[in-house]
Write a structure and sequence with these properties.
Length: about 220
């Protein structure tokens, strides 16, 4: 029979996974819109920053209550502390996803060099998505070797997003120098893509926290 705090921990895990799935689903909608060149479909991204924050606060309350009422064993306490931090990371990720969809759709137009933009935006979005998918998959992972492998995969994808963002930034600056009248639109596109890079950063933090939850050690500052 499960101990009361173990039941609470299982509830927390499921609730955290649901937030992760909702963000991943939103990013998949974004990727399909870009792949299909149907940028207007970005309006189908319905993830709510307010609802996600509310849900993360609910989870935090369960965690704090569990730690206060029960005496979780060391490993379970470590997991609860990790999830307390992960909810904040997921709330930020949801906000960045919503911002990307809204900003990219608003700024994108046929006046811009869309081929150059999509050449880098699509792989950037793919890497951000894969980094979050891999990070959240660690929640159910028990094998320490697999946890380490997934953690390093997230780091690799995050590194890709850094490189891709630098490349598109360089190319967009070149485009701006040729068409100064479109500088605001290009800068807004760049700002939206920056949100994808931040999503990958958050994925690394989530993976690191889940690694700590399962393996132990120290929580590194993100």
């Amino acid at each position: 029979m499960l101990k009361p705090y173990e039941i609470k921990l299982a509830t927390v895990k499921e609730e955290v996974k649901q937030i992760g799935f909702s963000v991943i689903e939103a990013l998949e909608i974004c990727l399909k819109a870009l792949n299909d060149r149907k940028i207007e479909d970005l309006s189908n991204v319905e993830i709510s920053e307010k609802k996600t924050l509310h849900k993360s606060n609910e989870i935090d309350n369960i965690i704090v209550g569990t730690m206060a009422l029960y005496a979780p064993e060391a490993k379970d306490l470590r997991r609860l502390v990790s999830f307390l931090k992960i909810t904040n990371e997921l709330a930020r990720t949801a906000a960045n996803t919503k911002d990307f969809a809204k900003m990219f759709k608003k700024s994108y137009s046929s006046d811009l060099d869309t081929n150059v933009i999509l050449e880098y935006a699509i792989p950037l979005l793919k890497s951000a998505l894969l980094s979050l998918q891999t990070a959240t998959s660690i929640i159910d992972e028990k094998d320490e070797k697999h946890i380490e492998e997934k953690y390093h995969r997230v780091i690799v994808e995050e590194s890709k997003t850094d490189d891709l963002y630098l490349m598109i930034e360089k190319n967009i600056l070149k485009l701006i120098s040729k068409k100064l009248d479109l500088s605001k639109e290009y800068f807004d596109i760049l700002s939206s893509l920056r949100r994808l890079e931040k999503i990958a950063d958050r994925a690394v933090s989530i993976a690191r926290l889940l690694q700590f939850a399962q393996v132990g050690g120290d929580i590194e500052q993100s």
